[in-house]
Amino acid sequence: MQPSYRSRNIRHEIITLLQQSGPLSRADLARRIGIARSTITGAVGALIDEGLVEEMETVPVAGRGRPATTIALAQGAGAAVGIDFGFRHVRGVVADLQHNILAIEERELGADYEFDAGIEAAFDIIDRLSQRANMSTERLLGVGIGLPCPTSNEGVTTRSAMIPKWSGRNVLQLFSERLPMPFVVENESRLAARGESVWGAAKGVENFIYLKLHSGVGGAVVAGGHFISGQNGGAGELGHISLDPQGPICRCGNRGCLEVYAGIPAVLAQARPVHADITLARLMTLYGQGDPAVTRIMADTARRVAQALSMLCNTLNPELVLIGGSLAGAGERFIGIVQDEMKTMALELNRAPRMERGALGRNASALGGVARVFELFAGRS
Ligand SMILES: [Zn+2]
């Protein structure tokens, strides 16, 4: 007989529920998952044997009744590492199954760093994080890796001219050959969305769009609780939605992509005729001060963002649009213009999703890597 959907996922459901709720009795676990007590007893027994959960005695209130036995995730049962390859840095986070962040490490490598330098920095960070978490690398549940480029579902970076140094590299194989533990590789924007859904501003939200406005523009689409990766891993490349077929050439080879209007380099370039040496920090200050040129540039940028989001919202009707990346620092005023512009471009039904800034900042992708490992681990039968 085929195992039922429930029986295949009991392990996942127990671990997930204990992560979310803390210690629970076997009876509570059975009730909340909706299966027989005897089935829970067997599954919990197997998890205890693996050292992943443990029994705890709960002292009765005011001395009445018998001590209750609850089940909790074992202290130090396991931890996962998330690694984020940014444009100038490699950043890593280690967190345990109870979602405590144990340590963070970062290596600054400079803009456009070499592929090999990035990989070596990542191994160094994994080593250092496992030391700081007081956990040998063998005890890590795995490592979730976020790459700054389109990545196939098999962990191979797409051959493209966008980031030549990363083109066609089998990152998953490279890591798996060096360290004997599970690795998972995904586009860093999708991992950031995963991080926000577990730790951040999209917690509990099943339909949302994540838009990262940074040096590059990326994103992720979450529909019905599923992180959409698509046939080739290319879903969520929001920065390369072409908004104007006559527009400027993009690094992807097409014209008029959202990134050529809303990527940080593009925004700064527009300001340079007026503010020659402008930096992102200066741009934000001038925006706050109401500088006329910067105000106009940011309004134009917001209009382009609204144009892309209107298409996406008419396609997906999300509950939430989460704006990440450093340009999200433009804040409420910028988001307000995006929302106003969407009113003229999306159907009434789709034009007013909640719109917020991401909550995790620079840790979003690395935390998403951790979340991805936990998900795979919990689902393993
Ligand atoms: Zn493009």
Describe the structure.
By secondary structure, this protein is an alpha/beta fold. The protein has 12 helices and 12 strands. It folds into 3 domains: 69 residues, Winged helix-like DNA-binding domain superfamily/Winged helix DNA-binding domain (Arc Repressor Mutant, subunit A, Orthogonal Bundle), CATH 1.10.10.10; 132 residues, Nucleotidyltransferase, domain 5 (2-Layer Sandwich), CATH 3.30.420; 153 residues, ATPase, nucleotide binding domain (Nucleotidyltransferase, domain 5). Helices cover 40% and strands 19% of the residues. A 5-stranded mixed beta sheet has the order 5-4-3-6-7, with helices on both faces. A 5-stranded mixed beta sheet has the order 10-9-8-11-12, with helices on both faces. Helix 6 crosses helix 12. The longest helix is centred in the C-terminal third of the chain and has 25 residues. It is globular. The structure holds zinc ion (ZN). Zinc ion binds next to loops. The site of zinc ion has 6 residues, from loops.
Blueprint of the fold:
Layout: H1 5-21, H2 26-33, H3 37-49, E1 53-58, E2 68-73, E3 79-85, E4 89-96, E5 101-108, H4 115-132, E6 140-147, H5 171-178, E7 183-187, H6 188-199, E8 208-213, E9 217-223, E10 226-227, H7 259-262, H8 264-271, H9 280-289, H10 292-316, E11 320-324, H11 331-342, E12 354-357, H12 364-379
Parallel strand pairs: 3-6, 6-7, 8-11, 11-12
Antiparallel strand pairs: 1-2, 3-4, 4-5, 8-9, 9-10
This protein binds zinc ion.
